[in-house]
Specification:
single chain; Structural Genomics Hypothetical 15.5 Kd Protein In mrcA-pckA Intergenic Region, Chain A; Alpha-Beta Plaits; 9-stranded mixed sheet; 4-stranded antiparallel sheet; about 20% helix; RsuA_PseudoU_synthase
């Protein structure tokens, strides 16, 4: 038997926290009866409905995807632009990206149908480190890089300390390559951090997600995560 909110989350309907809200709001039925009690456990044969629609109990799937630039981190786009799930048409599960990468940002993106797993990865207290490679205008000074390391204020709130390394400087084009490692995931955070120190980002790629890398993958390619990798990711989360 499993807790009702976990069953809903594992079906890819929503996160476990939102599933709890659905239960409290009377939007969930088990075998035709509305259930409002959190922690209710259900059996494999029980019929669970959310908003009167039976959920399909899918086996959880987990992928590491090399998102190319110009792809939306979503399952659909009302403007007809290319989305992440266009690269998973052979996958029958109701998958979705974990968090997002900006339209113009490439790199590692996790894709799953496990709502609880996605919630864990995106938890505000998660300390999973993400490493980005940024091509920026100009050459950041030592003082500017140190400001990133200490944390800077964007959108009225200071960022957590970051790990920063100046990889190379291209004097002819007045551009630099900077490696930045953070554990936060605020909206456009990396781009805003570099804008704040006066060095706008021209190109951005997420190269690492925790211990995961893009080794062996080209843009648009994917691979299933190994069970040990999924477990290790969960173990990295501090809640």
């Amino acid at each position: 038997m499993e807790r009702l909110q976990k069953v809903i989350a594992n079906a890819g309907i929503t996160s476990r926290r939102k599933a709890e809200d659905f239960i409290l709001q009377g939007r969930v039925k088990v075998n035709g009866q509305v259930v409002r009690k959190l922690g209710t456990k259900v059996k494999e044969k029980d019929v669970v409905e959310v908003d009167d629609v039976p959920i399909e109990k899918e086996e959880p799937v987990y992928y590491l995807f090399y998102k190319p630039r110009g792809v939306i981190s979503a399952v659909a786009d009302d403007r007809g632009r290319e989305v992440v799930t266009d690269y998973f048409k052979e996958v029958e599960a109701r998958i979705f990206p974990v968090g997002r990468l900006d339209y113009d940002t490439s790199g590692i993106l996790l894709v799953t149908n496990d709502g609880e797993f996605a919630h864990l990865m995106m938890h505000p207290k998660s300390k999973i480190k993400k490493t980005y490679i940024a091509k920026v205008v100009g050459k950041p000074s030592k003082e500017a890089l140190e400001a990133l390391r200490r944390g800077i204020v964007i959108d009225g709130r200071k960022t957590a300390p970051a790990k920063v390394k100046l990889k190379s400087v291209r004097r002819k084009t007045n551009r630099s390559i900077v490696e930045l490692t953070i554990h936060e995931g605020r909206y456009h955070q990396v781009r805003k951090m570099f804008e704040t120190i006066g060095h706008p980002v021209e190109k951005l790629k997420r190269e690492k997600y925790g211990f995961l890398t893009l080794d062996g993958l080209a843009p648009g390619e994917k691979r299933p995560l190994k069970p040990v990798e999924v477990k290790k990711l969960k173990d990295l989360v501090v809640t």
